[in-house]
Amino acid sequence: MYKGKTFLGVIPARGGSKGIPRKNIINVCGKPLIQYTIEEALKSNFLDKVIVSTEDEEIAKISRECGAEVPFLRPKELAEDTTKTIEVLIHAVNEMKKQGYTYDYVVLLQPTQPLRRYWHIDEAIAMIVDRNEESLVSVSEVREHPLLMRKIDENGKVINLFGDNSDLRRQEFPKIYKVNGAIYINKINENFNAKVSPNDNKLAYIMDRKYDIDIDEPIDVEIFKLMLERIIN
């Protein structure tokens, strides 16, 4: 709870994944991947409850062993490649309501962003409440600036992606940020519905890009291993 507002932390973890089979529970330096997110969520001073939303019995078991609650199993039709994140969040909120728990905000914490720390979560929660906003998304400054990106036409010629002159020195490039997938917060009210896209949340919580790694391919796991000691410890 923060300033009288309550927060439900939801960690979505379906069993199916293409790039890395069973990605959410692969062993990384002695822990299942999802445990890194669960541990930080449980350290939060402001999250009132931390649950894992999964359709998978093994993920549910491991999540409970790591300290998270799994108060329901998600229907398999909400664990497909085509399932939208907002559908998972709405289902979680509604299931908790059936069990007698209601919250002011839902906080989405994806296990594929394991470098996010508990104080990132708390800072983001404080920000959205203090600014009286309905939605927040974490962002990081981009490594590859879009001013240097190009399309290639049918004749093999490069086309400036934004139509801007890019002869600036790199130090003069305007700062550009990307949604990094670490933290999403939405107020649970009449505007929280199936039309919401968390990637389009409005208030920006800026994270240092050293905490930004998205586990999607095997190489990402190796990079994560290299970063763990420097970032976490």
UniProtKB/TrEMBL annotation:
Source superkingdom: Bacteria
GO molecular function: N-acylneuraminate cytidylyltransferase activity
Keyword Iron attributed: no
Keyword hit for tRNA-binding: no
Pfam annotation, one family: CTP_transf_3
Record key words, sorted: Nucleotidyltransferase, Transferase
UniProt protein name: Acylneuraminate cytidylyltransferase
Organism the protein comes from: Caldicellulosiruptor obsidiansis (strain ATCC BAA-2073 / JCM 16842 / OB47)
